[in-house]
Specification:
globular; two-stranded antiparallel ribbon; mainly alpha
Length: about 425
């Protein structure tokens, strides 16, 4: 809004030119989101307490879980507001990248809020039926995929390697084109076209490639959103991990939207994607600001309102900068958490069918709870270590460290090929 106020009205005053710089507006978005989240956070927490919107804690036999009972949930509202307001104030509304990210934030925020409302207000522990969550996530995936397909403003300029005087040099095609090319790690040529998966389709190869791409978008949005939801089980775990991922994605977006940096890292140049840096700055500020209240001992939980939104934002953002195939590395913490649940459930069902008694791989899943259980204490699990209970704050900190390592590896993959 402020960008258009100063730019479109041709207002002449000292400092107006700063609004043309993404770095300035991104910095402003970060500061605003931090300020907003810390200021409104206390008020929203007090309101949630007044309305008795407290967490329903199951008796899982975990250390300190009783102290969490009654802690206000649905705190994801703080994150969402802290993202939306800075983006509205300093973002550009002529950027479809920004608009699509705002739609993603509101869409999944409402989906998560509906789930939390059923749990907390309606006192239904099961919450929204899983199929309705999936429908909502698939719907968002379709919106993103079809928008990328039909809107002519979502284009790239593909990078090509050419021989030069000082070795291989990177050049870009002169025309912007719509493309389903994405970036893959650990190979000399980072680019991969989904249409290459269906060469047998002949003249329909490009259309078939887009169908595959849209299916991948749906899969990525659903997987990352649900994985973030599963990770949200300890104070500050999902929030801090999301902030770390956000920093890496913000850097990737800045590189992709700047032709010189894109050339240095030999990745495709995506015109207009630099505006995503402003959004991600607000995202980082909102998550760090939320940690003020969500760090142990948490004064508020984000609930599905926050966790589904954070995961969906990360997924759609990665898709828009054509880096969705880097997500398994970057979001490794999320996926290990989700994988632990899949392994646990599958192994339990198989052993129960074969022997009549279900066995476990982990002492408890998702994985972060495994470290909260003592080993060799009557739990029939294949993995008993560590034998001692690890304090919650130490588990969270170690997961953050792993997240930082994965973020660095993700960025380094652009130069390892």
């Amino acid at each position: 809004m402020l960008y258009h106020f100063f730019h479109d009205l041709n207002i002449e005053m000292p400092g107006v030119g700063l609004w043309n710089y993404i770095s300035f507006r991104a910095g402003l978005a970060l500061i605003l989101s931090l300020f907003i989240s810390t200021i409104i956070g206390k008020r929203i927490i007090d309101y949630l307490k007044l309305k008795q919107m407290g967490e329903l804690v199951r008796n899982l036999g975990l250390e300190g879980e009783n102290s969490k009972k009654g802690t206000p949930t649905m705190g994801g509202i703080i994150i969402i507001i802290s993202i939306l307001i800075p983006c509205i104030l300093v973002g550009r509304f002529d950027s479809l990248y920004m608009i699509l990210m705002l739609i993603t934030t509101v869409w999944l925020g409402l989906l998560g809020y509906a789930d939390d409302y059923i749990k907390v207000v309606k006192k239904d522990k099961e919450g929204m039926h899983g199929k309705f969550k999936i429908i909502g996530q698939v719907g968002l995936g379709l919106i993103v995929g079809l928008t990328l397909y039909f809107n002519p403003d979502f284009v790239i300029r593909e990078n090509i390697e050419v021989p030069g005087e000082n070795g291989t040099e990177i050049e870009y095609l002169q025309e912007d084109v719509k493309s389903i090319t994405t970036t893959i790690p650990f190979v000399k040529n980072h680019n991969f076209d989904y249409a290459d998966l269906v060469p047998f389709m002949g003249e329909y190869q490009e259309i078939a490639g887009w169908v595959i791409f849209i299916l991948v978008i749906i899969l990525v949005v659903t997987a990352v959103s649900n994985s973030a939801n599963l990770t949200d089980g300890l104070d500050g775990l999902a929030t801090g991990t999301s902030a770390i991922i956000g920093v890496a994605l913000g850097i990737l977006a800045y590189f992709s939207g700047h032709i010189e940096y894109a050339s240095y890292f030999n990745i495709m140049y995506i015109p207009g994607s630099g505006e995503l840096v402003v959004f991600m700055a607000a995202f980082i500020g909102a998550t760090i600001g939320f940690l003020w209240y969500n760090s142990a001992p948490a004064q508020v939980f984000m609930g599905d309102t926050g966790s589904l939104t954070l995961g969906g934002i990360i997924a759609v953002f990665a898709i828009l900068i054509h880096k969705e195939l880097l997500i398994p590395i970057l979001c490794g913490v999320f996926f290990v958490e989700a994988l632990s649940v899949i392994i646990q459930t599958t192994y339990f069902k198989i052993t129960k069918k074969r022997t009549g008694v279900g066995r476990r791989v982990f002492k408890m899943s998702p994985l972060h709870h495994h470290f909260q259980k003592p080993g060799n204490a009557g739990i029939d699990a294949l993995i008993q270590r560590p034998l001692q209970v690890i304090p919650e704050t130490k588990i969270v900190t170690r997961f953050w460290i792993v997240g930082i390592i994965l973020a660095v590896i993700t960025l380094v993959t652009l130069k390892i090929r």
